[in-house]
Every structure is written in structure tokens, then in C-alpha cells.
Design brief:
Oligomer: single chain
Largest sheet: 9 strands, antiparallel
CATH architecture of one domain: Roll
Distance between the termini: 26 Å
Shape: elongated
Radius of gyration: 17 Å
Strand order of the largest sheet: 1-9-6-5-2-3-4-8-7
CATH topology of one domain: Pnp Oxidase, Chain A
Structural class: alpha+beta
Order of helices and strands: EHEEEHEEEHEE
Length: about 140
């Protein structure tokens, strides 16, 4: 991403990054399949320090491909502001039928059937950045 001269990236703490993530509901799951990075749209919710992700991919495509990466951003292009958060860590498929039913009721999905997977991602690395505009006259 090329950042215009009047904008800059500010790294945020892991705590702030998780706070930003919790305030959003959609992102992208990134995993490697046949040595190619695959990116899928997903919905998420944070529960008890774990990221619950509903993603339109067969569970066999991500099973055993841990750790996984999840990325979320909110960018306001006209204003030149926004943020991006990336979470990386081991994940497991939610197999308990009661828990899965709960998350399918509360998290919107794009597909149903075999291409509808629920994951529990355990964040081990969290990074985030804010995109901010430079205030006119600042630093001069």
C-alpha cells in the first residue's frame, strides 16, 4: 500500500488492535494450500480471548494448516483514515454440534453445507496500524 505524503501509519498496541478487531465483524482468513496463499472472506466474534471465525471453505482445506492468519481493516479512503489488524495463531475446527449451532445462529455466513466452516483461532501474534492524516503545520 502506498501511503500519500499527508498520511502515515501508526503502530498500535496488541490490546488496542484486539479492541479494534472486536468492534468489527468481517475480515479475511489467510491460509496456504498447495503452496499458494488463499484468502477467504469471513465473519468473526471474539469470545473468551479466542477468535471465532465463520469462513466459506471446506474444513479439510484448513484442518492441520495451523497456524492461520486473520486480517481485518476499516479504511475510509476519502478521509484518509482507518486501521488494519492482523492476528496469527493456531486454530481448530469447532466440532461440537451445540457450539457450532450457536455460532451459525449468531455469525452470518456466505455459504451453507460443506463450504461453511467454524474455526476457533487462538491469537498468539497480534499487530495493528492506524492510518492517520498529518495535521497541517505539525512537526514544522
Amino acid at each position: 500500500m502506498t501511503v500519500p505524503a499527508d498520511r502515515h501509519l501508526i503502530e498500535v498496541s496488541g490490546t488496542e488492535a484486539l479492541w479494534l478487531l472486536e468492534g468489527s465483524s468481517q475480515g479475511r482468513l489467510v491460509y496456504v494450500q498447495r503452496e499458494i496463499a488463499m484468502v477467504r472472506p469471513a465473519t468473526h466474534v471474539m469470545e473468551f480471548g479466542r477468535l471465532i471465525v465463520r469462513v466459506p471453505v471446506q474444513s479439510t482445506a484448513v484442518l492441520g494448516r495451523s497456524p492461520l492468519t486473520y486480517q481485518v481493516d476499516e479504511i475510509n479512503s476519502p478521509a484518509g483514515t482507518g486501521w488494519t489488524v492482523t492476528v496469527h495463531g493456531p486454530a481448530d475446527v469447532i466440532g461440537d454440534p451445540t457450539e457450532a449451532a450457536h455460532h451459525r445462529r449468531t455469525l452470518a455466513g456466505w455459504t451453507h453445507g460443506p463450504h461453511d466452516t467454524l474455526l476457533r483461532l487462538h491469537p498468539q501474534q497480534v499487530s495493528g496500524f492506524r492510518l492517520a492524516r498529518t495535521v497541517s503545520g505539525a512537526g514544522r
